[in-house]
Hints:
By secondary structure, the protein is of the alpha/beta class. The protein contains ten helices and eleven strands. The protein has helices at about 25-40, 75-85, 95-100, 105-115, 160-165, 180-190, 205-210, 215-225, 230-235, 260-270; strands at about 45-50, 65-70, 90-95, 120-125, 125, 135, 170-175, 195-200, 225-230, 245, 250. Helix 1 crosses helix 6 (about 180-190) and helix 4 crosses helix 5 (about 160-165).
Amino acid sequence: MSHATGQKYLKQDSLPLMWCSGCGNGVVLGALLRAFEEMGFKKNETVVVTGIGCWGKADDYITTNALHTTHGRALPFATGIKAANPRLNVVVLMGDGDSVTIGGNHFVHAARRNIDLTAIVVNNYNYGMTGGQFSATTPKDSYTSTTAYGNPERDLDICALADVAGANYVARSTVYHGYDLQNHIKEAIARKGFSVVEAVSPCPTHFGRNNKMKVSVEMLKWLKEKGVSREKYLQLESPEQKGYFVIGKLVDRDAPDFSACYEKIRVRALVV
Length: 272
C-alpha cells in the first residue's frame, strides 16, 4: 500500500472540493496526485489540461502547470503543448462528455497519432454539471433528465474506441477500486504514446437518483459488483445485458509515439 499523499500537488487554499457529496472525482484526483508524487514529477515539468464539466474543475486544486480549455477540446490543446515541448509530462482530464461525446473526433485522432499524452477519463454516464443529460456513454435504457422514458441509444465503450484507434495503453477501473486505479494511472503516465485510463464514477445527484441509486453507497456497491476482470466477464451469461463491464489493463502496446516519428521526419528534412 502506498504511503504517498500527493499533498504537495494539492492547492490547500482551494479546499473544500466543489463536487457533490458522493461524487467520485475526489477519489480520482487523489489517485492522480499520489501517482505524481510516487513518480517524482516536478511541478514545472508537468501540465494538466482540462475541459469543461465536473471533472474539468480538477485543475482548480492542482499546483502543477494547468490549462483550462473549452468543452471537448482538451485533447487538441494538450496535443499542441506536447508537440511544442515533448519533454513535458502532459495529463488530460476529461469527462465522458468532453472525451468521447463532444470531443469524440479529437479522441480518435489523439489515439491515431499516438501522441504522448495520458487521458484520465471520469465516466459518470451523464453530463453531471449541466443537469444530468445523457451522453454517449449512458447505458442503453438508462434514465436521465433528457431520457425520461429510457435511453434508446447504445452506449459507447471508451476503452474499445481507444484500442481500435491505436492507443498504446488502455485501462479501466472504478472509484471503488481506488488503489488499482492509482496503479493504472502510474502505468499510463509511464507508457510512451497515447494512454487512456477510464475511471467509472458515481454521480448520485443525477445518474444515480434517476436509476434507483440515490445514495452514493448504493452506486459504489453497484461498481463493486458490475466491474469484473476479463476472465470473469467471459464466464458470465449475457454480461453486457446485465450491466457488467471489464476492469483492469486492457491494452499495452509499444508502438512509436508521435514525437519519435516526427523527430525522424525533422532530421530527414534537415539533411535535405
